[in-house]
Structures are given as C-alpha cells and as structure tokens.
Design goal:
Elements lengths: L1 E7 L2 H4 L2 H17 L11 H17 L4 H19 L5 E2 L2 E5 H12 L3 E10 L2 E5 L6
Antiparallel strand pairs: 1-4, 2-3, 4-5
Helix pairs in contact: 2-5, 3-4
Length: about 140
C-alpha cells in the first residue's frame, strides 16, 4: 500500500478527474518502483556515502586509473538517483517520461502548481518511510 501527499493550491483542482488520476497513477508507480525519496535532497548523506564507497571499490577492482574512477562514481550516483528518486524515475506507464514530466504535464493541463510532498510505502507488513520534510 502507498500513502502519498500531493498538494495543489485549490479545492477545485483537487476534485478534478485529472488530479485524482495523477494521485492514483503516482501511488501505483510508487508501489511498483519502490523509490526511496521524493527528491535528491531527501536522500540521507549516509546512503549516498555508502553508495559512493561501493562504486569506488568496484571501479578500483576493475583496475581503472584514479582520475577515471571519480567520473565513474559520479555517473553511477546519477544512475542511482534515476532509479531511486521518485521525481527522476521513468514513469511505469510511459517509460519515455519521468514522474516529474507527468506532474509537469498535469500542471500545464490544470494551470495550477502541484507538489509531491511525501509518501510512505508499505509492503508485507513492513513500512518504508520516505517522508520528505515539508518546506512550509
């Protein structure tokens, strides 16, 4: 199951079919894709450091020169973001677009700002808490 907080500016927009469909589609996407945060900024430094260490060790074991290793690590970190950050993930119903693209399309259609604030994903009795701090 997924709980998601998606904010818009008016009740009128919140009650439209387009907004409701966006909420349902994003909930299904989160259930299927298991993102760990809404935005890059919400991933803890511990997680990023652990990933960097893993990528650095893999690059060193492959025998690459040190100056190449840094570029490889950054490329793999960007790939990590694309796979684990909700707004950067390829949308499950249309992999040619990111989740952010789907939100932007809905904003253009409705003429009102829409923001994914946070989500929580539950699986087999385990909770994955992916709440982002709300910037209010």
């Amino acid at each position: 199951g997924v709980l998601i907080e998606i904010n818009c500016e008016t009740d009128f927009v919140a009650k439209t079919d387009d907004f409701t469909n966006l909420c349902k589609n994003l909930s299904m996407h989160i259930a299927a894709s298991e993102p760990i945060s809404v935005k890059r900024e919400n991933i803890s430094l511990d997680v990023l450091e652990r990933e960097r260490d893993i990528y650095a060790e893999q690059a060193r074991q492959s025998g690459k020169p040190e100056n190449i290793i840094d570029k490889m690590i950054e490329g793999r970190i960007n790939k990590f973001y694309q796979e684990n950050v909700l707004l950067e993930q390829a949308f499950v119903k249309d992999p040619d677009k990111t989740v952010q693209d789907i939100i932007t399309d809905t904003i253009a259609k409705l003429g009102e700002n829409i923001v994914v604030s946070r989500f929580v994903r539950f699986q087999l009795g385990e909770q994955t808490n992916n709440s982002a701090p709300i910037d209010n």
